[in-house]
Amino acid sequence: xxxxxxxxxxxxxxxxxxxxxxxxxxxxxxxxxxxxxxxxxxxxxxxxxxxxxxxxxxxxxxxxxxxxxxxxxxxxxxxxxxxxxxxxxxxxxxxxxxxxxxxxxxxxxxxxxxxxxxxxxxxxxxxxxxxxxxxxxxxxxxxxxxxxxxxxxxxxxxxxxxxxxxxxxxxxxxxxxxxxxxxxxxxxxxxxxxxxxxxxxxxxxxxxxxxxxxxxxxxxxxxxxxxxxxxxxxxxxxxxxxxxxxxxxxxxxxxxxxxxxxxxxxxxxxxxxxxxxxxxxxxxxxxxxxxxxxxxxxxxxxxxxxxxxxxxxxxxxxxxxxxxxxxxxxxxxxxxxxxxxxxxxxxxxxxxxxxxxxxxxxxxxxxxxxxxxxxxxxxxxxxxxxxxxxxxxxxxxxxxxxxxxxxxxxxxxxxxxxxxxxxxxxxxxxxxxxxxxxxxxxxxxxxxxxxxxxxxxxxxxxxxxxxxxxxxxxxxxxxxxxxxxxxx
Length: 488
Prior knowledge:
Layout lengths: L1 E5 L2 E5 L8 H8 L18 E7 L5 E7 L12 E3 L11 H8 L9 H13 L8 H8 L9 H12 L18 H6 L7 E4 L6 E4 L3 H10 L4 E3 L7 H4 L7 E4 L9 E4 L2 E5 L4 H11 L3 H6 L4 H6 L2 H6 L8 H6 L3 E5 L5 E4 H4 E3 L2 E2 L6 E8 L5 E8 L10 E10 L2 E10 L6 E2 L1 H7 L6 H14 L10 H18 L2 H6 L2 H4 L1
Parallel strand pairs: 1-5, 7-9, 8-9
Antiparallel strand pairs: 1-2, 3-4, 3-5, 6-7, 10-11, 11-16, 12-13, 12-16, 14-15, 17-18, 18-19, 19-20
Helix pairs in contact: 2-3, 2-5, 3-4, 3-5, 15-16, 16-17
EC number: 1.17.1.4
Keywords: FAD, Flavoprotein, Iron, Metal-binding, Oxidoreductase
InterPro entries: 2Fe-2S-bd, 2Fe-2S-bd_dom_sf, 2Fe-2S_ferredoxin-like_sf, 2Fe-2S_ferredoxin-type, 2Fe2S_fd_BS, Ald_Oxase/xanthine_DH-like, Beta-grasp_dom_sf, CO_DH_flav_C
């Protein structure tokens, strides 16, 4: 059975198909149809809702998420707020401003946009968010008929207005601790949600020991964390997944910590939770992570999930390979360590043994002379999948490349290093001639495919151009002239 708050009221679900998305449950079971289905893949934002998740201290953190690819079982112990909560007075400034600024036409996308704006408003109560934060919050919401200028104008206006609901308001938890008190009464142990007649099953263990035991008993089960990719098998491929084990609530798999000369990130840690500590060490991650999906996706998607999915165009593996990061794998036979670059065997094939899972990722901290460059190329700036992603760690001593690790996504069946290009750079001056030689060597490293995102020739050319970009960006005069977008 799962328990959670829905618009201020406690809900208990003791029997349901674990393949149900939050969106489908809301619309078909609860008849809360304000939340819309536009794409069922986490791209358009029409399904945006707000979830509140208690931390270790009991404080609730509110986030906008895509309900179309969030599974019902993941709601246990959380608060769920939908657009229907704001039918009760007082209305939220985001609603009023969208009307006053003419931010809606057909209105289909409007509920999702409203929820994204409300989440941003709730998380910046002490300071007004700037345009950068506003655009980031709206980057996962598509509108086909209004145009974005009036929507952005509405957001700017809403962010400077106060909202003060009383304690009876369905979304009052955004402003006070009422929800925290209610959620504290929900049990924090592992849960199981099953469909009728011994149908599909969803387990959500709360400890590492429980997870190991479940994986030992059910090695054929599918692991799920944020479900930002796995849920597409349900919503796009119309599959029924018989047994899911969620790692989202396993305490040992969450959070970031510094361990001497490494940053350790739990595999179930969402992107937005590790973005700041990782970017403080390696600043190149910040603009790349801002372009990894939308804010709704980054609030749910996890580092372990991005790696275990083993996509050749996953955004995190190339920079982790460039940094010589290490995976900690766990399972019924205990823990073991493995370099990230050794984890990928072939397309969608990894080194995981039956019953194993990714426990954490250990990322080295910078050493003197090391520079990291990460560049993502995609057809649009926001909320898109990479055609090519290049990550380069260059170690310079008196202008000489004493060491380097060059990794790419989108160039082969797996994320991979460019060892011939590395050999061309290592020991050479960090200048145009050596970079040109390294770019030419890429054709010996990779034989990329042509697909809908890019041709093979384009991929080889752009991979070499990204090395040239890293050289230009390392020149202080050139770097100072580049914009944030140039680094993205």
